[in-house]
Amino acid sequence: MRSATPWRLRTRTLELGARTLVMGVVNITPDSFSDGGAFLVPDAAVAHALQLLDEGADLLDLGAESTRPGSRAGGDAPAVSAAEEQARLLPVLEGILRARPDAIVSVDTYKASTARAALAVGAEIINDVSGFTWDPALASVCVEFGAGVVLTHTRGRPEEWRTQPQLAPDALLKTVHDGLAASLATARSTGIQPHAIVLDPGYGFGKRLDENYTLLVRQRELLTLGRPLLAGLSRKSFLGHTLAALRGGHPAPQSVPVDARENASLAALTAAILHGASIIRVHAVRPAIEAACIADAILAAS
């Protein structure tokens, strides 16, 4: 299971493993699957971020480009340019740090230029959903600033996720394990120290619906890579598809709305903690803190 491990960030160190840390999501986008458009105005995004901190979030994750299934992200012509991403992101990051200078802020980006701008302003962590595969220059920027990094396993690009072939359980775990191992190798060859790295299995990122459950139940096998795990399960579509079976009706719905997935998210994040996650990435912070508290108590008693 998980063990106590330091996570070295740009200016400080977090201790992982003693209790689960909660990362609150702030989407500064018009089209994110969960709350796109709700916090596109900087003042609204800053207010939301401060509310998440008041509710007990240990750190924040700011994203200014949606990587929802079907989006055009990571290619040569992404839907959101680096300039637009930074125009959305930087005023919010600056506003949060003005109000809470000690806040630990992660920036969800795969673009080296955006990472550089965010780290210069005061971000501590770069959360790269591509695991250093979409922008070869990003790893070097993280080295330059001494940033903490989250490396996520992503299978293909967002527009390809819905058409990925189904994998048998062992093949799925091997794909995720080998992909994360390759990202780790890239990080280390660039000069990023292991203690700066956290790994994310990438729930929903190129995994077919039920594959996410296979990954969840076998998540602890990824601890053999030697780094702590972050799990981002909040409001994901595979949860909505499972819940649709409860709705019934003719025709039966394929999924339930995003705002009806919160209880399912709590169940999934509890399972993720019990299977080795040290950090959970969530939209609703207070319920997640309570669920994590119970999961941590179970782990302590085991």
Give a summary of the structure in a few sentences:
This protein is an alpha/beta fold and 302 residues long. Helices cover 39% and strands 15% of the residues. An eight-stranded parallel β-sheet has the order 8-7-6-5-4-3-10-9, with helices on one face. Strands 1-2 form a two-stranded antiparallel ribbon.
Descriptive notes:
The structure is a single chain. With 302 residues, the protein is of the alpha/beta class. The chain has one domain (5-301): Dihydropteroate synthase-like (TIM Barrel, Alpha-Beta Barrel). The chain has helices spanning 42-54, 82-99, 112-121, 138-145, 169-190, 211-217, 237-247, 262-274, 285-301, and strands at residues 5-8, 13-16, 21-27, 59-63, 105-108, 125-128, 148-152, 197-200, 229-231, 277-282. The strands form 2 sheets. It has an 8-stranded parallel beta sheet with strand order 8-7-6-5-4-3-10-9, covered by helices on one side. It has a two-stranded antiparallel sheet with strand order 1-2. 48% of the residues are buried. The mean pLDDT is 92.
Number of strands: 10
The portion of residues assigned to helices is: 25-40%
Number of helices, counting only DSSP H or I runs of 4 residues or more: 9
Residues in β-strands, percent = 15-25%
Structural class: alpha/beta
Q: How far is the N terminus from the C terminus?
A: 10 Å
Q: Please state the average pLDDT score.
A: 92
Series of H and E elements: EEEHEHEHEHEHEHEHHEH
In the CATH hierarchy, the third-tier topology is known as TIM Barrel
Strand order of the largest sheet: 8-7-6-5-4-3-10-9
**Total count of domains:** 1
